[in-house]
Amino acid sequence: MNIKGVKISIILLSLITILSSCGPKTKDNNINGEKIETIEHFFELAETEGYYDFPENDELMSLNSNMDRYVKNLIVNLSDEEFDNYYRLRINEKAKAIPEIQLLKIEIYKDNFAVEKGKKPINNFVAKISFTTDFSGLSQQEIDDKAREWVNIIFKNNVIERFRIGETHLEFIDSNTKMARKVSFTSHLSPENYITLEYPEEELSAISIAVEQVDEYNSHVTIECPESVKRKPPSSSLEKFGVDDKSHELYIEYSLFDPLNEIEFNRETDEYTVSKIREIGENLASDLQINISSKKYLEENKIKKITIAFNLTWKSENKIYEYSYEVD
Fold this sequence. Notes:
Number of helices: 10
Shape: globular
CATH architecture of the largest domain: 2-Layer Sandwich
Strand content: 15-25%
Structural class: alpha+beta
CATH class of the largest domain: Alpha Beta
Number of strands: 12
Helix content: 40-55%
Oligomer: single chain
């Protein structure tokens, strides 16, 4: 059974088993205004209405927990190709409802390096979408308002984006001046909806070691900083972790926040931070090669080099510091 290319037969039997064994419903299941009585009814509508029978975010919230879980599983089990096809169709359809803009192009790619909360998330796609429009006679404030309005129409209720897109980058290009109003946003799943990809134990072990380093930085930065620059610990995090298949290089990236909690560049603090991150890099490269599980991960992926990058978010330029270490 297909929903215009969405292969649902793979998960149909297991989901029907799960849902048929559940207790009585506590809420009505309404999708696109029609009450859904059974899984069979859902599939019947899906066959008739196609892709667009996926519920919107607000509709998903109105479903009982069993149907809600079923729809989320359906979304998660879309293949990359199925997701790509559905997403393009959905954006196209939404854009057609806004006569002031024309869809120019959609680029979608998977970020295999994405890490969130120390795990590899299911919402690891990046979307770059361009529209053309006419901003003639509009002030900057009016342009900003228009962009917000269009983003709200296209993306606010998109349940597929909520669960599969991690980053969205938009540009509304003025057909006259070719100047673009750019909008970017990220998607973060709430704990009850957080779904992670399954990865080998060795890789998860390596990721956990990388997370431990930044956790230690967060917990000790105010203690170790000079007395004059004490502030609350920054909310720094591991952002990227993955192997470049061509170069066999393990790439790790941290996003560090201003330990001064201010925008101004401060020479003393910057020198302190650079010294500290160099120490983190050295410790991490060493730990990854000592730990039995993470060492196996390095060996299985034939990793020859570890590159550790630090994004010093408070700096306006030269923000990225990279350190590379050869694997013994």
